[in-house]
Amino acid sequence: MKTFEELKKELKNELSSCNHVNDNTLASHVNENVQWAWDNWAIDFSTYFEGQEKPERYTQEFMEEWIENEDFAPELQAINE
């Protein structure tokens, strides 16, 4: 049985190592959701990057925080069935 911590660590590792295309995996889905949040949330993003201009792609720090704050209960249940 996979735990929440294991799943989150796995997703962070997968998203850190490459850019996912829409291949219907959980990592691909999470990648799309993190990028959407990066593009659309009305928060101060300056804590996630250095310099004046926000990068087009989300940063490692933002992705890790997003994953840490996500529930993933339905996904984990499906994985463990």
Structural class based on helices, strands and sheet pairing? mainly alpha
Helical content class: 55-70%
**What percentage of the residues does DSSP assign to strands (E)?**
under 5%
Order of helices and strands: HHHH
- Segments where pLDDT lies below 50 for 5+ residues? none
Query: What is the number of helical segments per DSSP (H or I, 4+ residues)?
Result: 4
Instruction: Indicate the mean pLDDT.
Output: 92
Work out the number of β strands. Answer: 0
Radius of gyration: 13 Å
Give the CA-CA distance, first to last residue: 9 Å
- What summary fits the major beta sheet? none
User: What is the overall shape?
Assistant: elongated
Domain unit count: 1
Give me a quick take on this structure.
The protein is mostly helical and 81 residues long. The protein contains four helices and no strands.
Can you describe what's shown?
There is one protein chain. The protein is mainly alpha-helical. The chain has one domain. The chain contains four helices and no strands. Helix 1 packs antiparallel against helix 3 and helix 2 (26-40) packs across helix 3 (60-69). The longest helix is centred in the middle third of the chain and has 15 residues, at 26-40. The radius of gyration is 13 Å and the shape is elongated.
